[in-house]
Amino acid sequence: MTDQLAEMPTDWQRALAIVAHPDDLEYGASAAVATWTDAGRECAYLLATFGEAGIDTVTPAEAAPLREAEQRASAAAVGVESVEFLGHTDGVVEYGTALRREFAAAIRRHRPELVLTLNHHDTWPGGTYWNTPDHRAVGRAAIDAVADAGNRWIFPDLVDDGLMPWTGVRYVAVAGSPRPTHAVDAAAGLERAVRSLLCHRSYIEALTDQDPETYCRTFLEGQTTAVAGRFGGRPGVAFELLLNR
């Protein structure tokens, strides 16, 4: 794929990121988040799980609070204060109306103009590696929940709870998509993105024998540099941008 990536739109003020696990946003998208918060935009994080099944050497009961704390520190490194967890069981999140309802409720509460999620497609860029069920379920439900949030006749009990329909979402940005269309210049946010990913030290130390800082920097610099060929030579964070209306 050689088409040039367009600049991500900036005509929005509030974003809500909906992902499956701690570290999902830090493996690339956080450099864009840092750039956005620097510009005075607001961003909140909603995570479906605590990522408790992600470390083979640590039991889920021990891993959940550890990964929650690391995610909160990671978010703070890029200027995000609001981090919420839904507590679904890591690895077995199921797409369905219950998940859509939870996401629609969050969208109505936060009233974002941009919803950010992770790759919901079957494979990662390049088509070689299969995506995980949690990513696919959460990404797809997040996209569907955008429409659900704006329709008072879908999940009408949300209105009874005081959550009125929200039709203000203009964009859905999918990070890690094999079909990117837009990008954000990563230069200004890259150092904080490295620090943000490094906050997930317990996960990273179980994942690789490399020095954690070297691992984080090498990974993120490689990701952002790979985008440069389609983004005017600038390192970037790529997104598949979907328009809600």
Automatic annotation (TrEMBL):
Keywords for the protein's UniProt record, in alphabetical order: Zinc
GO molecular function, one term: hydrolase activity, acting on carbon-nitrogen (but not peptide) bonds, in linear amides
Top-rank lineage group of the source organism: Bacteria
SUPFAM superfamilies in UniProt: LmbE-like
An annotated GO BP: glycoside metabolic process
Protein name: PIG-L domain-containing protein
Matching PANTHER family: LMBE FAMILY PROTEIN, N-ACETYLGLUCOSAMINYL-PHOSPHATIDYLINOSITOL DE-N-ACETYLASE-RELATED
InterPro entries the UniProt entry points to: GlcNAc_PI_deacetylase-related (IPR003737), LmbE-like_dom_sf (IPR024078)
